[in-house]
Amino acid sequence: GRLVEPAEDLDDRAAEAALRPGSLDDFVGQRAVREQLSLVLEAARRRGRAPDHVLLSGPPGLGKTTLAMIVAAELGQSLRISSGPAIQHAGDLAAVLSSLEEGEVLFVDEVHRMARPAEEMLYVAMEDFRVDVVVGKGAGATAIPLHLPPFTLVGATTRSGLLPAPLRDRFGFTGHLDFYAPDELEQVLRRSAQLLGVELTAAGGAEIARRSRGTPRIANRLLRRVRDWSQVRGTGVVDADAARAALRVYEVDELGLDRLDRSVLDALCRRFGGGPVGLSTLAVAVGEEPDTVETVAEPFLVREGLLGRTPRGRVATADGWAHLGLRPPLGAPL
Ligand code: ADP
């Protein structure tokens, strides 16, 4: 799995926190989601009630955690943070829920990875603001209802389809985050460069934006790596030359594919002749969970037109073959 990315050191974490926009106005791109969310929040504010639960879906690094923080900030409430993998027993969730104060925002990242019994407890908590605490064992076990103050759950998932329908249905609003356009990433980079005190030229920003996989987190990370390169080997300025040289060192290719993207495409072409090949077979070939291949690598490869999904499996496109510098064999399913 990719819970912790190796490139993410402490310095990166700190930088990431420092670069998070703090309000909807500072949040770049995602216009539809921003407008929808601001209506949900404004209406709740006017009613003086906690807003409906919010589900945010989309690939990693597109701003789900940031939006959860913004929801809390815009409501003037504090944010409590948890994650699906951390909630493996109903008791874990009961502890979190019972400590919530009125109006607080609870963020559960990777909400699709919660254990089943916890999931069922969450349905009830979301709908009735109640937790049934089971006391005792066997025939003598009784459920004691514990009433919760109204709160707002913000759930994040890499794909809303991964959520069981009963859970999905209890969110009053679902926002889908999509990859960012290059000009939006340039805007993110300009803002970040200013906050970091880095001199970034327009061409430097464009070069980094183009190769950031449509993802603000990656754009910010590459900005810091190019800054490193420029401070050590260049003039200190982040311009197009520095970006190109640094990204060569860090093996970020022309389209910004990362190691997982490339190994998926590579396996698809070299080992499976361009497909069609099933998701799980492809995942085994690259040593990853099918879920990771499907929700992290594929959306970007599909968007770039390098990979196609067909009913019979994944296929490499003509551009996919070309990107690896290969010619498709005769009869490849393009
Ligand atoms: P996710 O939770 O979807 O994995 P995050 O919210 O942690 O993504 O975002 C990763 C980083 O990218 C954040 O530190 C933030 O600085 C930056 N970021 C994400 N979305 C935006 C945006 N719309 N505008 C500016 N910066 C953003």
TrEMBL record:
Its EC number is 3.6.4.-. This is Holliday junction branch migration complex subunit RuvB. It comes from the Bacteria. It comes from Pseudokineococcus marinus. Mg(2+) binds at T65. It catalyses: ATP + H2O = ADP + phosphate + H(+). Residues 181-251 are annotated as: Small ATPAse domain (RuvB-S). The chain holds residues 23 to 356 of 394 of the full protein. GO terms for molecular function: ATP binding; four-way junction DNA binding; four-way junction helicase activity; hydrolase activity. Its main location: cytoplasm.
